[in-house]
Amino acid sequence: LARTYVQSNIGDEKEILASTFKMRFWNLDERKKRWGASHFEIYEEKLRQAVQDTKGKVVQYEGNYIDPMFHAASSGQTRNGDGNHPYFVAVSSAGDIEMEGYLGIYLFELQDFASRLGIEVRENLVDSIEIAKRDESGYVVELLTGSVVFNGDEVMQKLELNSACFTMNNRNSIFFDLLDMITCTISFMSGKMIVRINPIILFH
């Protein structure tokens, strides 16, 4: 994927600075620190082997370079591509749920929540929030707040969440379904909301 991204942007140039692409990567010292002495050589060899095995190869769709999108972790299943990315197909990625930082908690004041979405705080705001549509992998496609419709990615960006795979229910308890990692209950109390994300959102 990295080679495809570089090749699709390099044009006729023979060399180009990595900083040009604003790509994040771990240098040697960072890899040693993150992987630890007991795993470094194993993972480093996997990287070297992957580079060698794919030497000169790029990914194309109908003769054009794909947009090599990448994510650190999914909700346990990746998503099908949209009209601009028809080459992406949802697959199981169950190991993602074991990733460090998979779950987190975010706290929003009700006013802040409304401000981020650009809506007014009103008496029945909590009751008006509804997830109207999900895709095949469980990610939110449409969220309703009264007559206002947001898409899931828009909500994710405006609330600065790690995932668009979340569930919201207006109840007075909180629970997790650790089997499918997509279910939760959301509570609104004292005008504050707690959001547990990636992929579960909780409001409190």
Structural write-up:
- The strands form 4 sheets. Strands 4-5-6 form a 3-stranded antiparallel beta sheet. A two-stranded antiparallel sheet has the order 1-2.
- It is globular and about 60 Å long.
- It has helices at residues 2-10, 28-35, 37-53, 110-117, 125-128, 152-158; strands at residues 60-61, 64-65, 104-109, 129-134, 140-145, 148-151, 176-177, 183-184, 192-197.
- It has 204 residues and is of the alpha+beta class.
- Helices cover 26% and strands 18% of the residues.
- The chain is built from 6 helices and 9 strands; from the N terminus they run H-H-H-E-E-E-H-H-E-E-E-H-E-E-E.
- It starts with a helix and ends in a 7-residue tail after the last strand.
- Helix 2 crosses helix 3 (37-53).
Short summary of the structure?
The protein is an alpha+beta fold and 204 residues long. It has helices at residues 2-10, 28-35, 37-53, 110-117, 125-128, 152-158, and strands at 60-61, 64-65, 104-109, 129-134, 140-145, 148-151, 176-177, 183-184, 192-197.
Task: Describe the secondary-structure layout.
Blueprint: H1 2-10, H2 28-35, H3 37-53, E1 60-61, E2 64-65, E3 104-109, H4 110-117, H5 125-128, E4 129-134, E5 140-145, E6 148-151, H6 152-158, E7 176-177, E8 183-184, E9 192-197
Antiparallel strand pairs: 1-2, 3-9, 4-5, 5-6, 7-8
Helix pairs in contact: 2-3
